[in-house]
Amino acid sequence: MIQNTDRHPNTAASAAMAPSTSEDDVFDDSYKETDKKPPRILVWRNIVMMSLLHGGALYGLILIPHASAGTLLWAAVCHLFSALGVTAGAHRLWSHRAYKASFPLRVFLALGNSMAFQNDIYEWARDHRVHHKYSETDADPHNATRGFFFAHIGWLLVRKHPDVIEKGRKLELADLKADEVVQFQRRHYKLSVLILCFLIPMLVPWYFWGESLAVGYFIPGLLRYTMTLNATWLVNSAAHIWGNRPYDKSINPRENALVAFSAAGEGFHNYHHTFPFDYATSEFGCRLNLTTAFIDLMCFLGLAKDPKRASKEVIAARVQRTGDGNYKSG
């Protein structure tokens, strides 16, 4: 929704990962954070907006008994569409370049990303690349070592640490700058969010089956939006704190099946941070991984191609070398 960007330090974000010129360059861990204490400059506009948003979502819960089945189904469709705009789009495609997508698929994912309203694709991917390259340091936008609340939502309520901005400006983002879909969405982001995140979810049930505007606004609109946001944030918070580390015990990200279920497959986080180029983000195929199933379907239909995968030999060698002993083969 709202996000802390270097363009405007008083806004807030969603984020996290990496490529530039090569995998080694993108994911090197040479950065060492300093002893300076992270600043805690509150962004009151974001605090007020997040409070109002979650209050509106709670009211949406109260309205559920008054909503038609069609409206509830529509809210679920909007949630799925917006989730894929983040997971299959901003994350696996544009942040990690884990597969290649055709122009129509990129347009579809960009529209879903605007409905998700978690910052435009360019900023989301940039911050995500910073998150992977400098994970759990002051340069990490949602550094989980600062606690669950900070990693989940608190990072959106304070100004970015200067290291996040500095490191983000140094990343090579030529691929994002060259993508016409990414740049078009960036130029028209505010209008696309107004239409896709708020007006369409509200107006479709009102126009097509006579739902009240209030129910349309608070359920497919605010409640759905808030649920999508919190599902994404759980990857930054819970999946960096709770779970085992079968692939690399030296890093914070964990395997968290509950987060994988709620975030369309993004909770197998120890695997993902160990093999960030893998389009499936886990060894388990489509199990608890709706996004992987979607990408597989797009490949089958010819709308996507070249999904990258970690080989079984590479995975086994890494498990033996750095795993915590809790490995279960997919």
UniProtKB/TrEMBL annotation:
GO molecular function: iron ion binding; palmitoyl-CoA 9-desaturase activity; stearoyl-CoA 9-desaturase activity
GO cellular component, one term: endoplasmic reticulum membrane
Biased composition (Low complexity): 11-21
Protein name: stearoyl-CoA 9-desaturase
Keywords assigned: Endoplasmic reticulum, Fatty acid biosynthesis, Fatty acid metabolism, Iron, Lipid biosynthesis, Lipid metabolism, Membrane, Metal-binding, Oxidoreductase, Transmembrane, Transmembrane helix
Membership in a protein family: Belongs to the fatty acid desaturase type 1 family.
Catalytic activity, reaction form: octadecanoyl-CoA + 2 Fe(II)-[cytochrome b5] + O2 + 2 H(+) = (9Z)-octadecenoyl-CoA + 2 Fe(III)-[cytochrome b5] + 2 H2O
Organism of provenance: Gouania willdenowi (Blunt-snouted clingfish)
Tagged with keyword Metal-binding: yes
Membrane-crossing residue ranges in chain numbering: 42-65, 71-90, 191-209
Localisation per UniProt entry: Endoplasmic reticulum membrane
Region (Disordered) residue spans: 1-32
InterPro entries reported in the protein's UniProt record: Acyl-CoA_DS, FA_desaturase_dom, FADS-1_CS
Membrane topology: Multi-pass membrane protein
GO biological process per UniProt: monounsaturated fatty acid biosynthetic process; response to fatty acid; unsaturated fatty acid biosynthetic process
EC assignment: 1.14.19.1
Domain notes: The histidine box domains are involved in binding the catalytic metal ions.
CDD domains registered for this protein in UniProt: Delta9-FADS-like (cd03505)
Cofactor(s) named in the record: Fe(2+)
Annotated ranges, domain Fatty acid desaturase: 74-276
